[in-house]
Amino acid sequence: MKARELRLVPLAVAVWGAALLCVLLPQAAWTCAAVCGALTATLLVVLTARQRGRAEVVRGGLAVVLLTAAGATAVTVGYALPSRADITGYDGRVVELFAAVSSSASIGQDGRLWFDAQTTRAGPPGSATPAAAPVRVGVEPGDGFDLGAGIRVVGEAMATDAGERAALVVFTSEAEIMSPASGVFGVAAQVRHDFIERSVRLPEPGAGLLPGLAVGDTRAVPTELNDDMLTSGLSHLTAVSGANCAIVVGAVFWLTALCRGGRTLRVLLSLTALASFVVLVTPEPSVVRAAVMAGFAMLTVLLGRPSAGIGVLSICVAGILLVDPWLAATPGFALSAAASGALIVLARPLAAGLGRWMPEPLALAIAVPLAAQLVCGPIIALFAEQQSLIGIAANLLAAPAAPLATVIGLLACLAAPIPMVADLLAASAWLPAAWIASTASTTARLPGAQVLVVPGLGSAALVGVLSAALGLVLIRPVQASVVVRRLRAAAFAVVVVAVSLAGAHLVLTGPLATATTPEGWAIAACDVGQGDALLVRSEGEIALIDTGAEPAPVEGCLRSLGVERIDLLVLTHFDLDHVGGVEAVRGRVGTVLHGPIGEPADQWMLDDLAAAGATLVDAAAGMRGELGAASWRVLWPRRDSLAFPAGNDASVVMEFGGGEVPRAIFLGDLAATPQRMLLGSGQLRGSYPVVKVAHHGSADQDPGLYEALHPVVGLFSAGADNDYGHPRRETIDILAAAGAHVLRTDEQGRILLGLHEGELEVWTERSAEEEVAASGSDVGDPR
User: Fold this and answer.
1) Residue 606 located in a structural domain
2) Co-location of 439 and 468 in the same domain
3) Same domain, yes or no, for 175 and 202?
4) Which end of the chain is more exposed for a tag (fewer CB within 10 A), N or C?
């Protein structure tokens, strides 16, 4: 790496910093611009006031460039703010928008089709006026919402937080295509549509992933595969990324050279192919970064001074952020730029360090994903709850197949006018796609495939320290000073401690997972963060009440308890914190007892469980059944004119007891009003030593209900430091006043309860075993 290339790094840093400051604190945009302008003017005056040395002039000139670029970025934000402010005025209102689709579409967790759009008019229905701002739109799944299409939507609007690229999010109730994508956008849309149709006719695994690899459409990727790609560190292959741009440009450049084309022709054809590819796959942040960088690199080739190093990356990042500063806060753009920088700066030193212990080709193959992992890990920890521990191995196995799937898939797109050839090429592209999907599914299920972290600056700092330590250990400097040697020694100690802790965690959550679990448990409250996931066990049969917000935490809890099969899955209601982890048990469930259905996405989830072999039952008060030697009964919701609509107040409330299961009631997310109705319904019979407190311990509780239940233990299922303040102090006081011992997953982790000679035993993950005396007949008999 040349020293002059490093001089351009501060340019990218200055522009990125100014962009982040101004988009996160919009009110500071014009102030930032004014300060940068004043400093620039002052510096120019100082530099021209008297004769200075060349080095001093160069440093001063660089400072002027940095300040000018930062100020220009602030001005870009300042000029965009009025139009964004106009459209955010519709926050919380029903709005009618006329807009042009500006991104690819993907299916969200709510079942809607989501895409970005640039508005042309906005306002109350029937009164739209000119407006120009980026928005995020969610519509019912359908065709025609392609890049460049003109649309009209009506829906409820919600303003976004500062830093979001879209100024407004619209949940539509009405949507129509005003003008289909036309011109090059129309051709690209038709090509994508034809290729997707060919792809989805192929078998899984691989069929749903292929459109994402080749043309950037992820709508057909199964949810389970998408989760596996995240766990295995292969999510950058789920859809088109910057690497695909390099593949396309390189392939066209090489083919033109093979046909003896001159330098100018090679560059022009490569740039044309690149522009066409960006339109085909839609300009996502990572694609924009890679396309600009590839285009700039091609221009340096045309000028006879080829360059694609850190200097080119810095110039491209600065230029992109100057045009669209909101990309600075976009994870996709940050990860793309960081990964590119890592490959340029770290890949070769890492390969040289690894080459001390292995053949050079293998060292280089490992160094590429390792460099990206070391740099991207801290960024991922800022916003993601998981860090992949097998990403490097998975990338070594899967990444070589990505270029094949991309190139052959694009050839299938070009061959669309000849159906037989296009079908053959699509089938050929399916093979590497299937390999990638199989690799993801296999590696994601390895013990210790990922580690869960709390997203934020703390986790990012911790991952950053570990990444830096590993890099210092692996990269062997040519000349090491005393300071460097001491740093490497400290880094080695950090790595040894981290590996030891990871190994212990792997053993305890793998082969010894169940060895550390008491055998006598009958009820378990899993620690799944801000959500519910509770188990009841009798004679080997298992009931699971809700699944938390994410699959990984509930999967870890089930594994630690040795649970393979769920005989009865109770989905109390369909809020994300109760059903978001349902993929962890898909294909392992006998019967699903569920609350009222409110949205189409609820039914899709149930249909997916049914397709995997589960029997669906709509819960209603009065239903009863057996779980091993225990009995269960549904106490709520009612099926009459007084019933509540789908949601918290219609949560399924269950009673379990008998067969060595302490008598227990699980109150879902009921608020005070339905709690009072439940109390007066005549469904409650006797006392309930174990009570799962409603709604994670929110303040909306009826003290009379808990007094009538006579609890011995009150279970609070809540996430540590959650934004809701759950459990609330007043609710804890209600349980204490009712005579209950308070147990909280946010403080004590996983909680287990069982019966021993008529006494209630309690085990908590972060405290010693505790025994709570209770009457045998009251504790165990549900009838």
Assistant:
1) yes
2) no
3) no
4) C
Q: Which two tokens stand for residue 600?
A: 């189409």
CB 579, CB 605: distance < 8 Å: yes
Rounded-to-integer distance, Cα 563 and Cα 733, Å? 34
Which of 35, 69, 84 terminates a domain? The answer is: 84
* Short-list 200, 193, 22, CA closest to 105: 193
Residue 333 lies in a domain: no
Please count the structural domains in the chain.
6
Q: What percent of the chain has pLDDT over 70?
A: 90
Span 201-236, pLDDT tens digits: 898 888 888 888 888 788 888 877 887 888 888 877
Residue from 80, 79, 153, 81 nearest 123 by CA:
153
639 in the same domain as 691? yes
Q: Collapse the DSSP code of 512 into the 3-class scheme (helix H, G, I; strand E, B; otherwise coil) and give the result.
A: coil
Residue 746 and residue 692 share a domain? yes
Amino acid identity at 85: A
Residue range 126-173, pLDDT digits in tens: 888 999 999 999 998 888 898 889 999 999 999 988 888 899 999 998
| Assigned token pair, 375 | 């740099």
- Write the pLDDT tens digit of every residue in 722-773: 888 899 999 999 999 999 999 999 999 999 999 888 889 999 887 644 434 4
- Do 226 and 257 have their domain in common? no
Q: H or E element: which one contains 225?
A: helix 223-231
**Residue listed under structure tokens 């600075």:** 328
Nearest to 76 by CA among 292, 327, 333, 325: 325
β-pairing verdict for 134-139 and 113-123: antiparallel
The DSSP line for 624-674 is: EEEETTEEEEEEE---STTPPPSSGGG--EEEEEETTEEEEEE-TT--HHH
Beta strands in 333-456 (DSSP E): 386-388, 450-452
Instruction: Give 683's contacts (C-beta < 8 A, 6+ positions apart).
Output: 621, 633, 635, 636
pLDDT at 53: 64
Residues 662 and 599 in one domain: yes
Q: How many residues does the chain have?
A: 783
Distance between start and end Cα atoms, the chain? 77
- My answer on whether 140 and 282 are in the same domain is no
The fraction of the chain above a pLDDT of 90, given in percent, is 36
Residue 692 has pLDDT above 80, yes or no: yes
* Paired residues of 631 in beta bridges: 626, 657
If one compares 105 and 705, the residue with the highest pLDDT of the two is 705
Q: Distance between alpha carbon 290 and the CA centroid of its chain, in Å?
A: 22
Instruction: Please report, for the domain that includes residue 158, its CATH number.
Output: 2.40.50.140
pLDDT tens digits for range 696-719 = 999 999 999 999 999 999 999 999
Q: How far apart are CA 745 and CA 525, in angstroms?
A: 7
pLDDT in tens, 428-460: 999 999 999 999 888 887 876 777 677 778 888
| Count of C-beta atoms within a 10 Å radius of residue 82 | 10
The answer to whether residues 632 and 595 belong to one domain is yes
Helix (H), strand (E), coil (C) string for 42-103? HHHHHHHHCCCCHHHHHHHHHHHHHHHHHHHHHHHHHHHHHHHHHHHCCCCCEEEEEEEECC
Ordered alpha helix ranges (H), 477-633: 482-509, 551-560, 576-579, 600-611
- Cα–Cα distance measured from residue 593 to residue 202, given in angstroms and rounded to the nearest whole number: 34
- Tell me if 191 sits within 8 A of 409, measured CB to CB: no
pLDDT digits (tens, 9 = 90+) for 367-388: 888 888 888 888 888 877 777 7
Q: Which domain holds residue 289?
A: 241-326
Token couple for 646: 């789908």
- Both tokens of 551, joined, read 């699959």
The DSSP output letter for 208 is T
In whole angstroms, give the CA distance from residue 17 to residue 367: 29
By DSSP bridging, strand 690-692 and strand 661-666 are parallel
CB 444 within 8 A of CB 227: yes
Beta-carbon contacts of residue 357 (< 8 Å; ≥ 6 apart): 363
Domain annotation covers residue 339? no
| Alpha-carbon gap, residue 542 to 561, rounded angstroms | 11
Q: Is residue 341 one of the residues assigned to a domain?
A: no
